[in-house]
Amino acid sequence: MDYHIKLDLFEGPLDLLLHLITKAKIKIQDVSITEITEQYLDYLNRMKEFDIEIASEFLVMAATLLYIKSRALLPKPKVEEKEEEDPEEELIRRLTEYKKYKEASEKLRARENIYSSIYYKLPEELINKEEKLLPPIIEGNVQDLVTAFINLMSQRKFSKEEIKVYPIGKRPVSLSRRIHKIKRILSTTSECNFSDFFDRDYGRSDVVITFLALLELLKNNQIHIYQQGQFEEIIIRRVT
Hints:
By secondary structure, the chain is α+β, with helices and mostly antiparallel strands. The chain has eight helices and four strands; from the N terminus they run αααααβααβαββ.
C-alpha cells in the first residue's frame, strides 16, 4: 500500500519553525535554538524516511540552525569581532515578522470564508415618496401640438352636413373670439387637457379655429404645453 505525504503542510522553513515553537507553547523570544534545531532536524529526517524530496530552503534553514547551535556551544573569544548582526537575533526577528503576517492572513482567510457566502445588493437611489408619485414631465413643442391635432381629427366623425354651404347670414367664429374663450377657460383652472378645448358638437371649422387659437397663444408664450409621460395626452397650462 502506497503512502502519500502532503508536502505543502508547511509553506516554508519559517512556517515549520513557527509550528514547532507554537507546539512547545513558548514565546519566540524565549526559544531555545538548541532544542528547536533538534526538532527541526528530526522532522527533516522523517521526511527522508518517506523518501520525500526536501526543498532547498528547508536545508538552508537547517544549516543556519546548526551554525547558530555551534556558536552557542563553542566558547566565546575574549575579544569578540564585530559582526553585522547576530544570526540568532536575525532568525528571531524573521520569525516574529512571519508570525504577524501569518496571523493576519488567517484572519483574512476567515473573513473570506464568511463573506464568500454573502451576496450584496447594489444600493438604490432614495426617492421621496411624494416625488415618486409625480410622473415625469415631458416638455412639448409645436410639433407635438400638431400631432395631437392630427390624432384628434382622425378620431372625430364630422357630419356630412358640414359639406353643405352655410347661409350667408351665419357669423363665423373669429380667431380672436376663440382665443378669448380659451383664456377664459384657463382663468378658472390653471391647466386643461388638449381635448377639453374641443367640444363634442364642434364642427370641422370650429376644431380648426380652436387649434389655430392654441398655436397663436403658444407663439405668444401665453400657454405652456407638456405631457405627463411618453404618448400621454398633451396638457395646456396657463403662463402666469
